[in-house]
Amino acid sequence: MLTPLTCRLSTVLTAGALTLVLAACGGPTTNLDAAGVVKALIEQGLPITLTVTYTADTDPSKLLGRPNGYVSKASFTDQRVDPSKVTAAEEGDVDLGGIVEVFKDAGQAEQRAAYNQEVSKTLPMLLEYDYVAGPVLVRVSRKLPSQHAKTFETALGKIVK
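The structure corresponding to this sequence follows.
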């Protein structure tokens, strides 16, 4: 018997498989690691600061370097986020600004973004903006108004071609 959750997960996995097939056909890419993408976002004029460059040992999600995980991860703070309105946040939390994850290919980045969005439907406290260009996923704080969050999508499109 299919439950609503298994139906949603099936949809996410199907979308991820389709994305992997389409990614094999080529598309945007980058040679930058996650910290390099954060620096490039800064160069695009975004008011952010690189806060943490993760290693396999320091990654709280334990996905760095793992099968189907990202190959690099870095977090940033955004000057437009008021830290006093972020509860229980620690350095590197997405709510303070955002996180960049770089994957082996675009399909994995798309699959991770789809997973994040699906999880946030049942756990709204995990809601975030997700922008993907090629193998790069930029996860942006829900504390930013949508017009500010959208600036990440524009800047990312100029970085990953």
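The first helix runs from residue 4 to 23.
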